Amino acid sequence: MGFDCLELKGEHMLDQQTFESVNTLIKDIGDNLIQPYFKNLDDSQIFTKTSATDLVSVADREAEIALSKGLTQLLEGSLFFGEEGFSADENIIANITQTDKPVWIVDPIDGTRNFVHGKDGFGIMCALYFNGKVQASWLYEVASHTMTSYKLGDNVVLNGEALQNFTAPNTDNLLGRGGFAFLNKAHLDEIAHKASDINIDPAGMPSIMIYDRLLRSELDFLVFKRTHAWDHVPPCAMVEALGGCALNWSGKPYLSNIHRTTDGLIVARDKATADKILNDLITPMLALAKAS
To answer: Whole-prediction pTM value?
Structure first.
């Protein structure tokens, strides 16, 4: 049973029963709707959106429909904002700019390219956002059945085990990853003397995988240029719950500006690391790009 969120005053919280019901719903859709399509898609079930590499499958669309129906039934009066719905109608951005109702922010299959090519590393990303705060979030990597979940005020839990808060990384040897297509090799060489302690792996990886590595403290920071809410809101809430930091390239808190998609993003295990990446990498890179 859900409850009428519109009757609540002040900060909205999910009760534990509804939180567990969302866990069950996401796992069910992942295991019983998405998984059967894995390695079983034919060409007629795969489509392109904005480019030849921007893929969507029938599984993405069916999963988003099922998630929208299930989540809004669990929480009466809530809104829904999904990747595929936004692709069809960008006006639904209004669902995450309004402040009166909680909204589910969902990527039905993050890592669609992996999914359609029969590779592991894809799954459901979901967050409940209300009044400027993430109330809860879920990452479910379907092939490995890995569930990471978080409810405001509680632990971040990975497959039933609470993750430990981040420790400060070694600032003399920072390791990061992310959407680095914007990085210009010549510009990187020019600022290398200042950023010699910042090590970047530019290889592409779906958000659900790259954030998993940060949550496990295998990485120190992530950098992205595009910041669609469905890719970043669910895991950024978990990062901040563990003591980390998510900032736009302007230095403003990301989770207060989730509707903006071109402000860039730095996610790090602590504020000091985020500031260092901003000052030693992003700001010089942007200045060089502007001057060129």
So the answer is: 0.91
